Amino acid sequence: MKLKDLSLIAKFNLVLIGVFSIALLVTGALSYRILQQNARQEVIERAGMMMESALAVRGYTIGEIRPLLALQMKHSFLPQTVPAYAATQTFVKFREKHPEFQYKEATLNPTNPRNRTIEWEADIVERFRSQADEQQLIGVRETPTGLSLYLARPIQIKDPACLVCHSTVDVAPKTMLARYGTANGFGWKLNEVVGAQIVSVPMSLPIEQARRTFYTFMGTLAAIFVAITVVLNVMLRSIVIQPVVQMSRLADEVSRGKFDTPEFSEQAKDEIGVLAASFNRMRRSLEKAMKMLEG
Predict the structure, then answer these.
(1) Which residues contact 257 (CB under 8 A, 6 or more apart)?
(2) By C-alpha distance, which of 103, 12, 4, 14 is closest to 56?
């Protein structure tokens, strides 16, 4: 069926559906992109808060815990005085209730074997080592539980005091050597990047929330479209279609010579009312002309 063969209301609905379909597609694409970006930003903010928490624990350990245990360190090495150990242990407790979150001070040559880098962590550390001006790295990787966003910052030896434990075996505390041995954690140099603080935050929950929000938004938008279409159809029928159909019927009767039909109502002041007035004048003029011909 050609477009010209359709009724007026069918043409109106066809145009309306086309316009709203394009609007839904554009709105859907934009809203989905914005919601995904917001979900990613939410994850980045969570990772940033975890990173700042780790830095706070490190600072607290250096400033308040280490001085208190300085005397005991002469007799036995206490890992609680090591900032990396304190931060890691804090997140071990945190992960008891939130196992999907991870924090690691990944190091190429650590004293504690649990801090040794794995393949993807080593790539991050090497990038920090090769690009000295890069102070933060954000990326996404696949994990067995889904996508995970990581935020990494370099671990750089800026305090000469760190070299007491990590420069050579000869100067390292005997108590530390007794605990960890002499194989790992030595050869570090001042201003060298030896590792990276890496926070990993799952993206599955924020992405799923963004997806549900998107579906709810689009469903609401579609429902509003349906409601607007119904209201516009009702208005079009009552304001335009019905008066035009009635006027057409009266015109058909007048064309058959039935001048006793009632005139069309001229109460409306809109375009339909103007058309009705013009139709009534034409009808009266036609009626007079027919009477003159008959006379």
Answers:
(1) 290
(2) 103
Angstrom CA distances, 277 to 11, 64, 69, 235, 245, stand at: 27, 94, 102, 22, 16
Name the H helices within 65-162.
66-68, 70-73, 83-94, 119-130
Name the amino acid, one letter, at 222. Answer: A
Vertex 207 angle, CA 118 and 209, to 5°? 140
Residue 205, C-beta contacts closer than 8 angstroms, at least 6 positions apart: none
Cα separation, 221 vs 30, in Å, equals 14
Q: Is the pLDDT assigned to residue 197 strictly greater than 90?
A: yes
In order of start, what are the domains of the chain with their CATH numbers? 23-202 (3.30.450), 211-289 (1.10.8.500)
Whole-prediction pTM value?
0.71
Tokens 């999907």 found at: 100
Give the gyration radius of the chain's Cα atoms: 40
What is the average pLDDT across 187-206? 91
The residue type at 153: R
Measured CA to CA in angstroms, residue 246 lies from 8, 43, 242, 279 at distances of 15, 63, 6, 12
**In sequence order, which residues have a C-beta less than 8 Å from that of residue 206 and are 6 or more positions away?**
39, 40, 42, 43
Residue length of the chain: 295
